[in-house]
Amino acid sequence: MEAIQESMQPLLPGTSAPSEPGKQPKTPAQRAMRKTFKGTAHLSNLLPTGTVLAFQILSPVVTDQGRCPNTASWAMTLGVIVLSAASCFFCCFTDSVRDSRGKVRYGVATFKGLYIIDSSIPVVLSPEEAAKYRLRLIDFFHAFMTSLVFVAVALFDQKVVKCLYPAPSTEARKMLVAVPACIGIICSLFFIAFPSRRHGIGFPLSKE
């Protein structure tokens, strides 16, 4: 045993022990690539993929393939856009936690912690855990920009544009193309720079 312990000691005073054979130091390029992939993966927590999918299914129906023959069709199209954007906004304030049995429970973040909405049994969080789920200013920015991303995606739908704005001018057509693209780029960069740590309704769960 003494021989083994001696072999594990540093060779010279002041030097650290050799690193584990399984862990190789990463090059600057590898570290930069890892950070890029990690930041891009955080986009799935904020981009409204599920809401967009539901909207793309409903938009041909409510817009009557872009014709919008009456006021009711126009109002339903606008109502679906507003409700979908509100859904994106609300989902940014949801989060999940595992109870004592290991089951995932969903809740709404509040200024005091997390309010569980899908469990009849109270889930008690310690003050340290409650602080992690507390509402922060960044949550409101995430919610606002997620709603903007959805509106930008909706404006790329030609059926929606024809219904809400049937005869746009040349300048309006250019704006309808440029503005949604700029919104998507700016919001995506913001999401990468300031990722969300929440794993709420419709978002992938963390390992914890």
TrEMBL record:
Transmembrane segments: 43-62, 74-93, 137-156, 176-194
Predominant location category: membrane
Subcellular locations according to the entry: Membrane
Annotated signal sequence range: none
Gene Ontology biological process terms in this record: endomembrane system organization
Region annotation Disordered: where it falls in the sequence: 1-33
Coiled-coil features, chain-numbered ranges: none
Domain of life: Eukaryota
Keyword Transport listed: no
Protein's UniProt keywords contain Calcium: no
Pfam families: DUF679
GO CC terms, sorted: cytoplasm; membrane
Annotated keywords: Membrane, Transmembrane, Transmembrane helix
Family: Belongs to the plant DMP1 protein family.
PANTHER family: PROTEIN DMP3, PROTEIN DMP7
Protein name: Uncharacterized protein
